[in-house]
Amino acid sequence: MHREFLMGNEAMALGALAAGVGVVAGYPGTPSTEVLETVARRRAEGTYVEWSVNEKAALEVAAGAAYAGARALVTMKQVGLNVASDPLMSLSYIGVKGGMVVLVADDPGPISSQTEQDTRTFAAYAKLPILDPSDPQEAYEMMVEAFDLSEELGCPVLLRPTTRVDHGYADVLVADPGEWRSVDPEGFVRDPGRWVIFPALSVRAHAAIERRDAELAARLSSYARNTVTQTAGPDARPRRGIATHGISATYVAENLGEGDDVRVLRVATPHPFPEDLAADFLDGLDEVLCVEELDPVIERALVATCGRRGLRVTIRGKLSGDVQPSGENTVESVGAALDAFLGRDARVPKPDGPSPRAVLQAEGQSCLSTEKDRPVPPTLPIRPPVLCAGCPHRASFYAVKRAMRGRKTLFCGDIGCYTLGNAAPLDMVDTCLCMGAGINIAQGVTRVEPDTAAFAFVGDSTFFASGITGVVNAFYNQASMTLVVLDNSTTAMTGHQPHPGTGRTMMGQVVEKVSIERVLLAIGLTVVETVDPLDHERAVETVRRVADEPGVKAIIFRSPCVVLARPQARSTVDAERCVGCQRCVRELGCPALVPDAASGKVRIDAAQCTGCTLCEQVCPTNAISGGERL
Fold it and tell me: What distance separates the 2 farthest-apart alpha carbons in the chain?
C-alpha cells in the first residue's frame, strides 16, 4: 500500500484496477470523465478500455464482459443514465456473473448538466444496490467493495459520487500494482434459461429481487460505512438527530461540535435502505433533520420507518422546507440549516477549538472577521460562457445566419460547446433538449409549420452518440430539414476525447475513421456537402444552395477545434483603416475582439486571437489582416 494525492475520479479508477477490473467502457461527461481516462493511463496489461459511442452501448459492452465472468466497469454522468436505462432495467432482472459496477456521477447544481438528477432515486426504481461515497478515500474503497458485492449478489451495483467527490483531491491510501487482484474469467457459458429474458424469467427474477433486497437491507444495517455517532459521546442522550450522506456528511461534520449534542446517522447505502440501523438511530429522538442532495431519499425512508415501527419522531428536511429543495449543498447552506434546527446563533465558532479570531490575535495578526473591518472586495465582472476565440462553430453559425437572413427559420441546437451559439450576437440556438434531440425536434416543428426552413445542429461526437437514429427517422418519414454537422474532430466539451470519427481509440490504436459523409449517404441522403466554415463566402453559398434542396440534406462544417490545432499567425487591426463600425464585434462576438471605449475602434487581444481570419473576412474596410487559417 502507498499514498497518493488523488482526485476522487482518479481514486475510483485505481479502486477498480485494484479490484481486478478487466473491461471498462463509458461515454465522456463531466463530472465522471477522468475515471475512464485514469484507467486507460494506469491500466494493467490485459485491461480493455473504450469510449463507447454512447452510454447505452457502454453498458451493454460491460454487461457482455460480466456475462463472461470478467469484472466490468461502466462510467457516465447522471443524464447519461437516462440513455443507459433501457439495458440497465433489464440487466437488473437478468443479472451478471462477473462483478459489474455502474459508476454514475451526479451533478448537483447543476454545474455542467441539463438537469439535476439523483441516482439514489433511480437505484430504487431499478431495484439495484447503490453505494454513496463521501470523500475520495471512501470512493476508492467503495469501488472495491462494490465489485465484491456485485459478484456475491449476481447483479450490477451502482456507485454514486457527486461533483465534489469526483473533483475533490485528497491523500488516498491505495494498493500497489503488485497487490491488484487478478481475475481469470470463466468465459461465457451458454444458458438460454439464464441469459435470454422472457416474461416467465422476469416474473421469477422480480420475486427473487424483492427477497434479495429485503435481506440485503437487514445486512446493510451492520455495514461499516452506515454509521450512527453522537457529538457529545456515546453516553449522551440527545433529543435531536441529523441524517445525512455523501459529501453532505462532511459538511455536517464541519458544522457540528461536541456542544451541539446531536445524534448523526450517515447513510452510505441509500438503497436498500438500512432500516434496522435507522430505527436504532431514531430511538429516543424527538426530531431529525435530513441533510441531503438532491432528492429527499433519506427523509422519505425515515418517515416510512417511523410509520412502520410506530415511532413518534418529527422528520424534517426538504419536504418540510427546512432544507433547500434543490441545488448543491455547501458548508454554508448546511451550516445555516443546522443553525436554525439547533437554535444556534448563526455561524457560531465550534466549541471544540479556538475561534479564528482568537488564533489571529494570538499570532499578532489583525483580525478582519467583523463586517466593520472587512475590506470590500471588488465587484467581479460578469463572465458568461462563450465560444473560444477562433472556434470554428462561430463561423458555422454565422454562415448559416447570414445565408438565411430574411427567411423564416428554426435553429435546433444540441448538447455540446456549440450550445453556446445561443448567446448574443449569434443567437443561433432556438431549442436544446438533450443529446441528439434537435434533429427530431426540427422534424416535429416542420410537421406543424411546413413553411419553416429548419436546421438541426449537431456535433461530430454527438452525431455518433445519438444523432444517427434521428437522421434515419427524418429520411424514412420524408421530412424536410437541413442537418448541420459541426465537425471539429474531437469531443471538445468534455476534454477532447476521441470518437469514431477521429481515427483513434482510448487504447491508443490508430483505426479507420468512420466517415460521417458515408454514413449519411448510406442512410439515403443524396445531398451531403462538406465545407470549411472559416472559408466564409463559400460556406454562405453552400448553405443557401443546400437549404433550397428538398427533403433531408446535410452540410458538414469541418474545421479542427482551436485547442487541438492553433494557427501560428494572429490577426491585427490597422487603426488607420478601422472606421469604428464595430461590425466584427456586433456580428461575431469573438472574445479576442475588444472595442476601445475612447475611439470606438477595435483592437485584437493577441493573447486570445488564433488567427482564424473570420473577422478579416467580415471587416468591410479590410482593416484586419495577418491571420493564417488552417
Answer: 84
DSSP letter assigned to residue 283 = T
Q: What is the pLDDT of residues 23-78, one digit of tens each?
A: 999 999 999 999 999 999 999 989 999 998 889 889 998 998 999 899 999 999 99
Grouping H, G, I as helix, E, B as strand and the rest as coil, residue 59 is helix
Q: Which residues is 289 bridged to in the sheet?
A: 242, 316
* CA 493 distance to own-chain centroid: 11
Answer yes or no: are the C-beta atoms of 392 and 533 closer than 8 Å. Answer: yes
C-alpha cell at 297: 431519499
Closest of 165, 161, 169 to residue 78, by C-alpha: 161
DSSP string, 385-412: --PPTT-HHHHHHHHHHHHTTTS-EEEE
pTM for this model (two decimals): 0.81
Instruction: Please write the tens of the pLDDT for every residue from 367-403.
Output: 444 455 667 888 877 777 889 998 999 999 999 999 9
Domain 2-220 has CATH 1.10.287.380: no
DSSP code string of 580-618: S--HHHHHH--TTEEE-TTT--EEE-TTT-----HHHHH
Q: Nearest 5°: CA angle at 174, between 173 and 175?
A: 135
Kindly list the domain boundaries of the chain, sorted by start residue.
2-220, 227-356, 392-558, 572-625
